[in-house]
């Protein structure tokens, strides 16, 4: 698969600015992709609905109209051998979103996902997400491949992006919620009036064998404040599944308080991910406590490495912090890409995550 992407900027402020100046040639173009303004040539006028322009980023960058006027939006296009996608991010955790509503087989294979996610030879992303037909009465199914091609059960930032993507596919605006079938069961994202997405992430799973972890459980079957030897250091860990496995640590037996900025994630992260105590590998969150309602975490994700944010990880962190007596049930969790609001409800034992999801660009690639 040779990757030559055509990208289209979203209908947000930057492209409107661009439209306003579209009669000049060359023009100054402010893309949301880069802080550096680019000078581009206009090949023709504007298109229909979603993409007002296509930007071909292959050899020479130029802007052109769609080949012919079509009543369809960009996302309705069907050309064999071409994948139309929208790239979204949730606090910098970025995904290639694929409209897969017409089939129950993902349109991209795990190997292709690896290539598409490559940040040098592909589009660049932490994963590929498919909006698929719902099952058992749900509105949709979400499937996802990590950037290493593995398939996780759930993705918190991804499901916020999926909600926004579906709203666009359905051409719906304003407050709206969807029932989504995932590998972690039913998840319900709700788009708020302010554009953020609040997600009912369901209940955390604490039973060691279901997380899964081979660490010896406490009497109630949970693994809370257990000792895990990683590379000669003894880490204190709490294991939580949000459908996908998480190992949360606040420090080692020697240093109880982590300073997460000082960690060498690329070194220590893989040692947790592939630790023999985690038969399905694990995501790992390294956490610093500022106050009972304010935490900071860095994450090493299973199948994706260091990412700027992890929604399921932030939920697992609040559960672990509550179980270890370090935090309240409602916290702000700071991630490298920004904050998430997490609440572990006492009423229904569900976790509620609120955060943003934004379009980065629209694009097409040959598959
Ligand atoms: N970034 C995601 C989690 C994606 C899946 C994870 N890498 C896994 O393999 O479990 C999130 O926001 O939750």
TrEMBL record:
Tagged with keyword Isomerase: yes
GO cellular component: a single term: cytosol
Enzyme class: isomerase
Catalyses which reaction(s): (2S,6S)-2,6-diaminopimelate = meso-2,6-diaminopimelate
Pfam families for this protein: DAP_epimerase
Localization in the cell: Plastid, Chloroplast
EC number from the UniProt entry: 5.1.1.7
Keyword Heme: no
Predominant cellular place of this UniProt entry's protein: plastid
Any one GO molecular function term: diaminopimelate epimerase activity
Entry keyword set: Amino-acid biosynthesis, Isomerase, Lysine biosynthesis
Highest taxon of source: Eukaryota
An individual GO BP term: lysine biosynthetic process via diaminopimelate
Pathway where it operates: Amino-acid biosynthesis; L-lysine biosynthesis via DAP pathway; DL-2,6-diaminopimelate from LL-2,6-diaminopimelate: step 1/1
Cross-referenced NCBIfam families: DapF
Family: Belongs to the diaminopimelate epimerase family.
HAMAP family for the chain: DAP_epimerase
Protein name: diaminopimelate epimerase
Gene label: LOC107796792
């Amino acid at each position: 698969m040779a990757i030559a992407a055509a990208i289209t900027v979203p209908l947000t402020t930057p492209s409107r600015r661009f439209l306003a100046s579209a009669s000049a040639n060359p023009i100054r173009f402010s893309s949301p992709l880069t802080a550096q303004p680019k000078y581009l040539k206009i090949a023709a006028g504007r298109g229909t609905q979603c993409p007002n322009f296509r930007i071909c980023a292959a050899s020479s960058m130029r802007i052109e109209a769609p080949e012919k006027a079509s009543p369809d939006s960009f996302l309705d296009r069907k050309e064999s051998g071409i994948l139309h996608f929208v790239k979204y991010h949730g606090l910098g955790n970025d995904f290639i979103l694929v409209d897969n509503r017409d089939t129950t087989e993902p349109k991209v294979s795990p190997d292709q996902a690896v290539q598409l996610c490559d940040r040098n030879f592909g589009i660049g992303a932490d994963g590929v997400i498919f909006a698929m037909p719902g099952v058992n009465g749900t509105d949709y199914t979400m499937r996802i491949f990590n950037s290493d091609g593995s398939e996780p059960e759930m993705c918190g930032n991804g499901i916020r992006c999926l909600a926004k993507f579906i709203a666009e596919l359905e051409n719906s605006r304003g407050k709206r919620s969807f029932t989504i079938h995932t590998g972690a069961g039913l998840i319900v994202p709700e788009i708020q009036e302010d554009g953020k997405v609040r997600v009912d992430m369901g209940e955390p799973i604490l039973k060691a064998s279901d997380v899964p972890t081979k660490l010896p459980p406490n009497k109630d079957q949970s693994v809370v404040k257990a000792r895990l030897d990683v590379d000669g250091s003894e880490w204190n860990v709490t294991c939580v599944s949000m459908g996908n496995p998480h190992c949360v640590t606040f420090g080692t037996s020697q240093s109880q308080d982590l300073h997460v900025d000082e960690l060498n994630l690329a070194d220590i992260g893989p040692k947790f991910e592939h630790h023999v105590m985690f038969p399905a590998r694990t995501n790992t969150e390294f956490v610093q406590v500022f106050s009972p309602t304010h935490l900071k975490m860095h994450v090493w994700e299973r199948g994706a490495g260091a990412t700027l944010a992890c929604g399921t990880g932030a939920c697992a962190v609040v559960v672990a912090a509550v179980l270890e007596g370090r935090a309240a049930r409602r916290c702000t969790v700071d991630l490298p890409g920004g904050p998430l609001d997490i609440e572990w409800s006492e009423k229904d034992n569900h976790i509620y995550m609120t955060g943003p999801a934004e379009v980065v660009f629209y694009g097409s690639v040959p598959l």
